[in-house]
Design a protein that fits this description.
Elements lengths: L1 E5 L8 H16 L3 E5 L12 E4 L8 H11 L3 E3 L2 H7 L2 H10 L7 E4 L6 H8 L3 E9 L2 E6 L2 H12 L5 E5 L5 E8 L2 E9 L8 E4 L2 E4 L2 E4 L6 H12 L5 E9 L2 E9 L15 H10 L1
Parallel strand pairs: 1-2, 1-3, 3-4
Antiparallel strand pairs: 5-8, 6-7, 6-8, 9-10, 9-14, 10-13, 11-12, 14-15
Length: 286
């Protein structure tokens, strides 16, 4: 079978991401399949492929979504599918799905701009409060308000770009779990460690953007409760490829969000479970 892999130029910013793409290609070819990496020109060449693998940032406003929708309409197997892109790109929609299915989360409330109610919301959540825009990703448009003044400033700024913001109780930790899920099965687990002085995997410390380290943990050795909760969360979205971010407090786990199109970098997410490439290629060609 022939796999078309859609990327954007920023996919070549990190050598680890380039290496992962090369491994995907080599894996596909070793399994008897074609694998071609393409940019936006893939839109005009979709009929050349049996399936499409999206490795660019996904959002309903970006080319990745257009590629996914057109490929689906032409009967191609697509990872990520357009419905997963739509849901995971809107954290308000995602919140409603997780809540409906009783997925454990930090205490979360939606704020639609009625500032007369903001004080009581803040009292209910307690400080600090994590403020998220619906389309936040890579820790962008995710901030922490330590008091009411900061909360007003951040929510006003975020509401200039959206009709709602997500307000969430802050759970202090040194890392987030990331659970990779493909078609209802855990394919890798790792810890996204926070940089010193930060509280997000990508943070600003001393006026510099810094990234925390990634520590892979074999999926077989990851806590069973963690994996069970991650699978429950992805079932609320679909049956594609996801990265679930989870906080651990003692023996309890809380889903922060579900991401479609999760990061896979060589030497990081794949450091323990090296069969993730074969499993994704098999899913694209099944």
């Amino acid at each position: 079978m022939r796999i078309g892999c859609f990327v954007e130029t920023y996919n070549f910013k990190y050598k680890e991401e380039v290496e992962a793409l090369k491994i995907f290609q080599a894996t596909a070819e070793s399994m008897g399949h074609g694998f071609e990496v393409l940019g936006k020109e893939i839109v005009n060449r979709l009929d050349d492929f049996d399936s499409v693998f999206i490795r660019a940032t996904t959002d309903p406003l970006l080319t990745s979504y257009v590629v996914s929708r057109i490929a689906e309409e032409r009967g191609k197997k697509v990872i990520d599918d357009s419905e997963s892109i739509r849901i995971c790109s809107d954290k308000v929609a995602l919140y409603h799905r997780l809540k409906k299915h009783d997925v454990p989360m930090p205490k979360t409330l939606l704020f639609y701009g009625d500032f007369e109610k903001l004080y009581s919301i803040a009292e209910e959540l307690g400080y600090p409060i994590v403020v998220k825009a619906p389309n936040s990703r890579f820790s962008l448009m995710v901030e922490k308000a330590r008091n009411f003044e900061e909360l007003v400033l951040v929510t006003r700024r975020f509401l200039r770009r959206s009709k709602a913001v997500i307000l969430q109780s802050f759970i202090p930790s040194k890392f987030d779990w990331r659970v990779g899920v493909l078609e209802g099965e855990v394919i890798y687990t790792c810890k996204y460690l926070f940089p010193k002085g930060g509280w997000r995997i990508r943070d600003i410390v001393n006026n510099r953007v810094v990234w925390g380290e990634v520590k892979a943990v074999s999926r077989e050795n990851a806590p069973s409760k963690l994996k069970k909760i991650a699978l429950k969360a992805t079932k609320c979205v679909g049956n594609g490829l996801y990265g679930v971010d989870v906080k651990q407090v003692g023996e309890e786990f809380y889903v922060i969000e579900v991401n479609d199109n999760p990061t896979i970098m060589h030497g990081m997410e794949d450091a323990k479970d090296r069969d993730i490439y074969e499993r994704i290629i098999a899913a694209l060609t099944s």
